[in-house]
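Note to self: keep these together.
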Amino acid sequence: MSVSRSLSFLWTPWSLALSILLLLITAGLGFVAWRRSGYSRSMGLLELLRLALVAIAAAMLNQPEWIEEYRPEEKPSVAVLWDASPSMETRDVVARGKSSSSPQSRREAVAPLAESASWLKLRERMNVVVQPFSPPQPGRGTDLHEPLARALEKIQNLRGIVLASDGDWNEGPPPVQAAARLRIKGVPVFVVPAGSATRLPDIELLSLDAPTFGVAGKSVRIPFTIESALPREYVTAVILRTSDGDELSKEVRIAPMSRTSDWIVWKPRTTGNFTLTLEVPKHGDKSLTDNNRMTAPISIREEKLRVLVIESYPRWEYRYLRNALSRDPGVDVSCLLFHPGLSKVGGGNRDYIKQFPSGLDELSRYDVVFLGDVGTGDGQLTSEQCRLIKGLVEFQASGLVFMPGMEGRQFSLLETELGDLYPVVLDGTQPGGWGSRTPNHFELTESGRASLLTKLADTQDDNTEVWEGLPGFQWYAPVLRSKAGSEVLALHKDAVNEFGHLPLLATRTFGTGKVLFMGTDGAWRWRKGVEDKYHYRFWGQVVRWMAYQRNMNKGETMRLYYVPDQPKMNQTVSLHANIMDRAGEPLKGGDVSAFFTAPSGTSERVRFTSVGDEWGVFTGRFTPSEPGRHDVTLACKQTGATLETSFFVQGAAAERVGRPARLEVLEEIARVTRGKVIEPDKLDEVVRSLAELPDPPPSVRRVQLWCHPVLGAAVVVLLGLFWVGRKVIGLV
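Structure:
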C-alpha cells in the first residue's frame, strides 16, 4: 500500500489578506522596536518570537490540515455469490424467445456464473471470488443476509458483488440490512434473478403423519396432507404401500389452490416394524415429480390394555360396555360394581374384582378407568381413591372416562380432586339429568367429524350419515357448557341454552393423560339392527386412543412416552418416564437418564428430573437436530433397569421446490446498493458492469492542525517564553 502526505489550507481571500496584513504590521512594529533599542540582540530575539507567534496565529486562520492518502497496491476484488439451496432446483426458467422449450432449473440458469472461465477477462484487473451459499441441509433454509455481510467483512478491497439467487430467503435477518451496510461502503450489488414470480402447477404431498405404533388386527388411521397449486379441483387415487407388500388406495378430491387433509385406513395383519410409503399419482399439468411421495416407519404390536370399570348399579349402559370390552381380544377388563344397599360389592365372573386396587402398584397397571354413576360415600369411592385416580391420569398418562347416570352420584365427585378433570360444567340444580319419551340425537362438531373417536365409517361423508342414523338416547346429563381447553366432539342436536347447544361428548388433556365425558347412557342402543358393529367399534377406539401415549414404549419396570409423538427436527420433545423399583413400587427419586443416538452416530445424554415421587414420574427435554430414526436407551442407576426403543424425527422442509421466486427481494437489494438487475442470459452485461466500476478511492487521514491540542500547547509555551523574555530585558 502506497502512502502520500501533504499539507493543505482551507483559506479564503479575506483570511489570506488578513494573515498577510497581520504579519506585515507585526514585522514593521518589531523592526521599529529593535531599532529604538539600538539593535539589541535580546530585543531582536524577543521581536522574532513575537513574529513567530503572530505567524502561527495567521496560519491557523487559514485552517491548515495534514493529509495522508493510502492507496492499495493490490487489485480490487469482486464476489460472485450463487444460491445453492434446494429451491434452486425448481424448473421454471424458460430461455428468452424459446417458450416452447422445456424449462430449465434455476441452478442451471445461473450455472455459467459459477464457472471460472466466465471471468477470465475480468481477472486481468480484479480478483474474482466465486462462492456458493446456503447448501442443502435438512431443516435449514436460505439466508441472504449472511453471505452479503460475510463478503464485506472477509474479502479485502471489495468493489462489487454479483448475487445469483431466486430471492427465497427464510432464515436470518432481512437482507436489506446487509444491503444498507454495503451502500455505506460504496459496494454495489448486481443481482441475477432466477425463477418465475408465479408458482408452477403442482401437487405436493406435505405430510404423512403415521402413528408411532399400531395393534395387529386393528385398523390404523394414517392422516396425510396434500397441497395443490392447480387452478381446478380434481379427483385422484392416493396409494399406500407397506414394506410387507400390502397396497391400498383411496379416492381423494383435491381442492384447487389450497391444502386438502384426509386419511387412509390400514389394517395390519402381523406384528413387526414396517415402512409406509404414500404416493400421489402425477397429474397431467404437474410440473414437478419429486415431491409426491413420503415414507414413515410404524411398529405393529400385540397389545393387552388393562381397563378398570367402576359402577354403582348394573344399568344397561354398564352391561353392554362390559360385554364390549371383555370380548375385545386386546383388552383385559376389571369391573368393580359397588351396588349400594348390598353388604358387599357385586360380581359374578372373572371380570370382577372385590375392592378398589389397594396400592399404587396395583392401580398403576390400568391404562383406562371408566367411572359410571358412582360418587363418594355410601360404600363407594373415598376422597383418597379419587386423588389416586387423578394422579393416575396426571402422572402416568392413563385415560379417564366419565359416564354419569340418572342417580346423579357423580356430582359428589366435583367436590373431590376429580372435579378439576371434568371437561364440562354441570348444572347442580338438576342432578338427575333430563329424560324424554322421544329419542334425542347427537350432532357432530367439526372436530368430531375429523376425530378418530367418532369414526364409525371409513369416509367422512359415510361417518356423518351413520351418526345421523344412530338410534337416539332418552336421557342426558345436566350439562351447561364445556370448560376452556376442552374439545367438544358431539352436541345435543336440539337442546340449547344461553351458551349454545349442549356438549354431550367432550375431551380434554390433563397432565399427561386424557379425559372423556360421555353425557348420555344410550350408547348401548346403537346395537339396534346392527348388533355390535358401531357399539364395539366406538368403545374399542376410545380405549386405544386414551391408552396410546402410555403404551408407546414400556418394559417390566419402566415406561417412556413423549410429546409430540411425531416430532419434527429442531422441535423440543417433552419426555416422561415412569420408573418402578425392584419391589414394584414407584421409585421415589433417583438417577434416571436417556441416551439418544442420532442417525449420524452422534450421542446425547438427557438427565431426567423427578416431579412426582409418589408416582415415580421423571421428566426431561430433548431437541433433535437431525431427521430420521433416533435410538433411545433409558436407564435408572438405582434399579439397574434399562429400556431400549427408538422414534422417528421428521425432517422439516424449510426449503421446498416449486415455490415462486421472490424477485422483489433481489430488486430491493440492487436498489439500496445502487446496483443493477441483470437477466441470467446476459453474462456479458454482468462482466461489463463490473469492469466499469471506478477504482476505489484512497483512504484519507486528515489531521486538523488548527485545532490540534499539541499546537495549542506549543502556542501556550511560546507565549510563556515571550513573557519571561520581556521580564528578563526589563520591559515589565
